[in-house]
Specification:
By secondary structure, the protein is α+β, with helices and mostly antiparallel strands. Strand 8 and strand 9 form a beta hairpin.
């Protein structure tokens, strides 16, 4: 599960890093993003990348307003009435500096910030989005089984995309098999 992450970089830096044109009026960065917060996400529009505002808490158009999912299990999302349509056609990238997980085997619980090994790099978390009538779209982060390093503290981790796979991930016409191959644990790095 991914229940908190950091998106502290300014919009122009995220836009440059992901090669996306930024919408006006994007939210400021946050270093401890809670569910239901409006954040920045990269979507594909007419063959180009766009940095847009999105609310963290996925809600399909038919769902009750009180119901929102922050994560979607990649193994079952394809067949889910809630997530399947967006996974097939409305994928996004959630830029993150780090994501947070807590080791619940320790008392008190020990928080960990998990991020890229190289300074200046950002995580590209795989997400899905759903349009809304009068507000920013809603989004969820896709999760998968953890790699060996993260398995020590949690049974899930966000899907982290390779930078060279972003165009394919954002392409609404991408083939199922190609997308399925992206929904895996990140390589092990300490």
């Amino acid at each position: 599960m991914c229940g908190r992450f950091s998106q502290g970089e300014p919009s122009h830096r995220i836009s440059d890093y992901f090669g996306a044109d930024a919408d006006d009026g994007l939210p400021d960065g946050l270093y401890n993003v809670p569910p239901t917060e409006t954040v920045r996400a990269v979507v594909g529009r007419e063959g180009a990348r766009r940095l847009v505002a999105a609310r963290w808490g996925f809600r399909p158009h038919w769902a009750d307003e009180r119901r929102a999912w922050i994560n979607a299990r990649s193994e079952t999302a394809w067949d889910s009435p809630a997530f399947g349509p967006s996974l097939r056609a409305r994928r996004c990238v959630i830029p993150a500096d780090v994501f947070y997980e807590w080791d619940r085997t320790m008392t008190p619980r020990q928080p960990y910030a998990i991020g890229p090994a190289d300074d200046g790099e950002m995580l590209a978390l795989a997400g899905i989005w759903s349009p809304t009538h009068d507000a920013p779209p809603t989004m969820a982060i896709l999760t998968t089984s953890p790699n060996e390093l993260l398995a020590r503290i949690h049974n899930r981790m966000p899907v982290i995309l390779d930078r060279d796979a972003l165009d394919a991930w954002l392409d609404p016409e991408a083939e199922h098999g190609l997308l399925e191959a992206m929904l895996r644990s990140a390589p092990l790095e300490s």
